[in-house]
Amino acid sequence: MITAALACLVIGMPAQQAEPIQLGRVYTKGEKAKYEVHSKLTTESRQVGLDTWIPDDLDLIYQYSYEVVEMKADGICVMRYLRPTMTQIKGATADAPAKKTTEKVDYNLELTVSPSNELLNVKDLTPKKDPKKPPTVNFIAAMRAGGKERQDVLGGFLNQFVGEIYRLAMFAGSLDSSLDFNPKMPYDETKVGETWKRTVGYSPQKQQGSEKMAVQRMDYTYTYKGIVDVSGQKYQRITADILLKSDLAEFIHQSFNVKSSVTGLKEIPLNFKASVDFDLDPKTFKTIRANGTSSGGFSIFITDLQNEALQEERFQSRISMKIVP
């Protein structure tokens, strides 16, 4: 009787997990939605000789809305996208209270979006002036010069890649790396447990099968989890994960053909990982909400110090995106 009962239960279970399905966003003309995104980043840093980590907090909050104005072939849509402001809240420190500032960004865009949530075309309806390009720096000359000039170049080089990590950690950079048009859908039919990748940034990494380093793409690995139940509501869930481990000092030395005796750098280990859960409408695959976390950090080791880092920094962040009723 127990065996028969179990057999009946198995037969009665839904078969939606077994068959592959086409994951794709279903847009309709006239569709409107408004979302709120809240990202909170906490960093801790310390210099050589200090045991205490100095914390710092940063919150980034914004709302955006869209309206689908045209439908094209193959489910592609044209929409009007608006993001009027972004609010930044810098946490209180020992020297200053918390500070809240709201920047008027005036994003007024016409976007062409595919069912995979890929941005096929972006048209700025309020064009802005192109920013001036930063001046180029002779890296080797600055390294040999030493002093403040070397510190400035190293700082700029480090900020270039660490800044990219912080941008990804807060999920609040460009439209390509933010949560606004996520998750990116697979192009083919997909079963529960299957994965696919999309590029979100670039960072120095070792080339596969080689000791050489190069700036390479960083990909989110998306995984289809199938139907989940959240507080009695059914959603399609997709997760996104990313992992990076690198050494920026090794990349500097290989890129400019210099040694640590010139740069004074021993190693700059950099690491980053992030994970996001997306809950989608079961029929239209519209993102209802997303929640994610990230963590990482870097350290700067120089030849003049044996076992201590000159500077250390670590961080963690939380991100949420939800529909505004």
Protein described:
This protein has 325 residues and is α+β, with helices and mostly antiparallel strands. It is built from five helices and twelve strands. Strands 1, 2, 3, 4, 5, 6, 7, 8, 9, 10, 11 and 12 form a twelve-stranded antiparallel sheet that branches. The radius of gyration is 24 Å and the shape is globular. The termini are far apart. Residues 1-16 have low confidence and may be disordered.
What's the structural blueprint in terms of helices and strands?
Blueprint: H1 2-12, E1 32-47, E2 54-71, E3 77-90, E4 99-113, E5 119-124, H2 139-145, H3 147-170, E6 195-206, E7 213-230, E8 233-247, H4 248-256, H5 260-263, E9 265-267, E10 269-280, E11 287-302, E12 311-323
Antiparallel strand pairs: 1-2, 1-12, 2-3, 3-4, 4-5, 6-7, 7-8, 8-10, 9-11, 10-11, 11-12
Helix pairs in contact: 2-3
Order of helices and strands: HEEEEEHHEEEHHEEEE
Content of β-strand? over 45%
Cα Rg: 24 Å
How many β strands by DSSP? 12
- Specify the structural class: alpha+beta
The percent range for helix content is 10-25%
| Mean of pLDDT | 85
Q: How large is the count of helical segments?
A: 5
What is the rounded distance between the termini? 50 Å
Shape: globular
The stretches of 5 or more residues where confidence is low (pLDDT under 50) are 1-16
Largest sheet: 12 strands, antiparallel
